[in-house]
Amino acid sequence: MRAGGGFGLGLAFFLIVVVLVPFGVGPQSALLSTIAPGILWLGALLACLLSLDRILALDWEDGSLDLLATSPLPMEGIVSVKALAHWLTTGLPLVLAAPVLGILLNLPAPGFGWLVVSLALGTPALSVIGTFGAALTVGLKRGGLLLSLLVLPLYMPTLIFGAEVARRGAEGMALGTPLALLAGITCGTIALLPFASAAVLRVNLR
Amino acid sequence: MVLSVSDLSVARGGIPVLEGVSLRLGPGEALVLRGPNGIGKTTMLRTVAGLQPPLSGAIEAAPESLVYAGHADGIKATLTVEENLSFWAQVFGSKDVSAAVDAFDLDPLRRRPAGALSAGQKRRLGLARLLVTGRTIWVLDEPTVSLDVDAVAMFAGAVRAHLAEGGAALIATHIDLRIPEARIFDLAPYRAAPLGLDDFDGAFL
After folding, report:
1. Chain A, nearest residue to B46 by Cα
2. Full-prediction pTM beyond 0.95?
């Protein structure tokens, strides 16, 4: 990670967004605890988005992507490892930092565990989908905005079910269904999207 | 026969640049591609390396026998010279990088971050990568850019050693490499005929 992937950048962004929300909303702890799960999830999602264009862009610029494509490694494996690396440097720190930031938003006590669970289950999908978006836009000059526009709609199901798990957890309601759906989305994207990313990358390298 | 290209046509950006190229490369042989700028040397090498599909024609080579080196060296600036080489050695499943380090006189630079190397030193590191891959066919695009006379001789020595071990090399270059084994292959006669402008698809190219 010495390669300048911007480790900690997403985390710092997450921190600032979550700290800014109480200033914007005002000191109403009841309102804050209602919106806390949604804000935390949205913050995590945007923080994740911030570092997506670095997943493949650096390797494209220095030519390693061409060389990796002609190496014995399968392209599907390369994009999977890229997604894993993104998750380890961005998703995992967000998962670990979220409970601390939950305190700032007056998250109800039962919600902390479920917030961590929902983020731990959901952020891998964000990284895998983001790698797909990065593969789509690799080689485009200033493709960052396009990448965000492409990826954000794909993030919607994960956001809906992830925030739902965190909200229901905070209010002490039954959350089996959204939890299963969230896990299903993550498993599905991890299983299928690397093939799509690899195919797109092969086309983009031409 | 390690590499056989028959009746190959290639396109860059949808426009055909070369057509009807046929060449054969046996063990211990090197072929130097010549031709003016824009003739399609890079496109052809990328096609041979499998990075893009040919318009028509066939490329036959043993699976997993090619290694490609393009204009960019694929060097990570924050890793040291040795770490860069070790990474590629791991990718290609080999262990030892010392032969590659010695061949391109990189020993004094081993522990230096690759970002602190000069352009010529970076290129030497990029070429040293070829040795750690252990692949038979080297497909090289302008390998001598930014190399000085000594380094070009170093490179020629590495290619000759590779050929002596039964390897093969396909090299696009403009300078004389001083490799006596190498044959010259001029691409100029294979320039593709321009597309007819009444072609509907042509309007979008």
Report:
1. A206
2. no
State whether A68 and B53 contact (CB < 8 Å). no
ipTM > 0.90 (yes/no)? no
Q: What's the pLDDT tens digit per position in A39-83?
A: 999 999 999 988 888 888 888 888 888 888 888 888 899 999 999
Structural contact between residues A166 and A152, judged by C-beta atoms closer than 8 angstroms: no
Task: Enter the tokens of residue B68.
Answer: 């490609």
Q: At what angle do helices A111-137 and A75-86 cross, to 10 degrees?
A: 140
The per-residue pLDDT for range A157-197, each reduced to its tens digit, is 999 999 999 989 888 888 889 999 999 999 999 999 999 99
Question: Per the CB < 8 Å rule, is B50 touching A62?
Answer: no
B67 at A interface, C-beta within 8 A: yes
Neighbour count for residue A30 (Cβ, 10 Å):
7
Closest among B87, B143, B144, B147 to B121, alpha carbons compared: B147
Which residues of chain A approach chain B closer than 8 Å at the C-beta? 2-4, 59, 61-64, 66-73, 205-206
Q: Are B23 and B31 in contact (CB under 8 A)?
A: yes
Instruction: Give exposure, B82-110, as e/b (b: 16+ Cβ within 10 Å).
Output: bbbbbbbbebbebeebeebbebbebeebe
**What φ, ψ does residue B187 adopt, rounded to 5°?**
-85, -10
Supply φ then ψ for residue B173, to 5 degrees: -160, 160
